[in-house]
Amino acid sequence: VIQVYAKPLYRNGERQGTVFVHRDITKEFEVDQMKSEFVSTVSHELRTPLSSVLGFTELMLTKELKPERQKKYLTTIYQEAKRLTALINDFLDVQRMESGKQTYDKKYEDLVSIIENVIDTQKVNTTIHQFHVRKETDKTTVLGDRDKLAQVFTNLISNAIKYSPEGGNITVRIYERGNRLCVDVQDEGLGIPEEAIPNLFKKFYRVDNSDRRRIGGTGLGLAIVKEIVKAHEGEVTVTSELKKGSTFTVSLPLVTLARGGDDERETDE
Ligand code: ADP
């Protein structure tokens, strides 16, 4: 995108010509576009839960309701307020990561225990999915920020649940490949159209398709995954087939115990 200024040039009151200034404003243009996308997504995504909080509180304030009904409405209000909090946290996370202000508290952690905790937390959100963990290696230590890595697998596993609305197996496979520790998160859900894959990890990107439009989201989850994995010198990739399912693979540098004790560890690289 080129912006052009035209300025007439005068000398002694006489017009000599015109000065054209060409400026490449592609970056500014992109930032502007991102900002307006951000504003429209944010307002839409925030408005939906907020209007149900408002609607249900109004009902409760103006109507005589049976206790069961009250409880039902309160549950909705609670869930929507929780969704709002999660949304706002996502927005803040992305902003912090992009400005380079995110700090990571890296320690030696067992990736399997992180993943198992995430599955235990996510399990309560579904009755139609079966979870399987296949641990194919014993070297499952990584150097990483426990909470941030948990967020990576929370986002991937909650997507696996969300985007397989008819249920099915969700399989997490942990294995070694070269000098990397890899984790596959596989579902049997909607799958992802091939043309969407290059955009999948971009902020605010959501696959546009009538099946999915009802499924809530911000398009930030995978962007956050990518940033966190990158900060751990890792990579995230995806393979998918429409109506069959998707597999997201996270690979991280492998850490091995150095001979001589628990405290001395070194990475393979
Ligand atoms: P969100 O889920 O909030 O829309 P994400 O960044 O987590 O945002 O995902 C971006 C898009 O990628 C989603 O809108 C969805 O269309 C697609 N997607 C992510 N994970 C899966 C999955 N496991 N199966 C099918 N589609 C997925």
UniProtKB/TrEMBL annotation:
Location of this chain's protein in the cell: Cell membrane
Name listed for the protein in its UniProt record: histidine kinase
Domain Histidine kinase: 41-256
Shown chain mapped onto the complete sequence: 555 to 823 of 962
Signal sequence annotation: none
